Amino acid sequence: MNELDTLERNIANQVYERYNIFLTGIGIYTKNTENTFVQSIQTKIRQKIVQDPLIKNMHGFYIDPSKKKIQFDVVLDFKEKDANKKRNEIIKQVKTLFPDYFINVTIDREISD
Prior knowledge:
Strand order of the largest sheet: 1-2-3
CATH topology: Alpha-Beta Plaits
Strand content: 15-25%
CATH architecture: 2-Layer Sandwich
Shape: globular
Number of helices: 3
């Protein structure tokens, strides 16, 4: 499941980079937040990024310690017009906390009926 989740995120990133289209809702989420090490990292990241009023939520959090990779989704308010810019800002913020890690952030939008 972890490999499938990573594959789906990589596909979504490639589609965005090539076609400037965000894919959302492709499939499954993996998580390993039962681990206290992972929980502490998730908490630090959440505290850092949710200070931004345009960030509504963070979910789908997963860390692969052996590959030094952190991945998660961020729900943005529709008021944020430049999702890619915001994604890059989030990655930079997280890199200040964990500079040795590759950070993969997927942007979601808050959608309701």
